[in-house]
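can u do me a favor
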């Protein structure tokens, strides 16, 4: 996938162990195989994104296969929409979803995450991909470079996503539904307040191709329960009392409930 310099916007070329542009900006490839294309002016904190502990917890949970139906749902949606070309996984985390999708669809993969720990972990394990530390609001990717863009439980930036997608490309968005992980929530919160949630948002510059809900049951035990928590926004919201109740939980029977949305870019005459 064609990458661009996050500082000046010109094309990056790989030269040995660095990515360089014509204006002499250079970005070294880390020992694990990722490149940091997140300049300090694009950071909102010193260490943005997930911590190493969260990243490793997510990897441990996902590798149990508990969320495998989500991968299958995404791949089937891409195939129905004739998704083809290079995959860009924005908010790729430790690389589970993107690499699985790339294998099924037979496509090359570029994964991007604002967490350096996430892409470091991804690059160390999955060598057949390009891994970038960067931000979704300023993607270091050339115009119309991606055939399939994925956003798995991550932020959606319609303008940037529209810019980097090919004109016949597709954007696959996975969002948590309102009733996602009600079992976990019932343990960590004394009361569950259901808020109205737009699980099929209208995105400027995009037309909705399809929207499919997906629900399935799974069981987590022991440490995997804590690993599941660390993957969710509830990790930041849980109280000491909720954490104590979760610590006493040895087996969790729960239901994952998500919505898989597929969009195509629109162009006005």
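np, heres the sequence
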């Amino acid at each position: 996938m064609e990458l661009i310099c996050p500082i000046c916007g010109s094309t990056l070329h790989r030269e040995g162990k660095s990515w360089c542009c014509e204006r002499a900006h250079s970005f070294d490839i880390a020992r694990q195989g990722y490149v940091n294309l997140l300049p300090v002016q694009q950071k909102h904190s010193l260490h943005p994104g997930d911590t190493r502990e969260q990243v490793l917890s997510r990897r441990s949970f996902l590798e149990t296969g508990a969320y495998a139906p989500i991968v299958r749902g995404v791949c089937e949606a891409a195939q129905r929409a004739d998704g083809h070309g290079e995959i860009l996984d924005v908010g790729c985390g430790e690389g589970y979803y993107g690499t699985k999708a790339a294998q099924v669809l037979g496509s090359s993969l570029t994964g991007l995450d604002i967490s350096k720990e996430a892409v470091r972990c991804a690059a160390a394990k999955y060598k057949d991909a390009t891994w970038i530390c960067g931000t979704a609001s300023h993607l270091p990717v050339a115009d119309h470079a991606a055939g399939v863009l994925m956003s798995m439980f991550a932020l959606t930036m319609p303008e940037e996503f529209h810019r980097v997608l090919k004109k016949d490309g597709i954007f696959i968005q996975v969002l948590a539904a309102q009733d996602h992980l009600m079992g976990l929530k019932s343990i960590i919160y004394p009361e569950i307040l259901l808020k109205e949630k737009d699980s099929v948002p209208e995105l400027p510059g995009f037309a909705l191709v399809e929207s499919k809900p997906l629900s399935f049951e799974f069981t987590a035990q022991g440490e995997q329960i804590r690993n599941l928590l660390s993957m969710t926004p509830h990790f930041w919201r849980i109280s000491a009392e909720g954490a104590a109740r979760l610590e006493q939980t040895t087996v969790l029977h729960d239901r994952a409930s998500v919505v898989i949305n597929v969009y195509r870019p629109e162009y006005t005459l």
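The chain is about 30% helix and 30% strand. hope that helps!!
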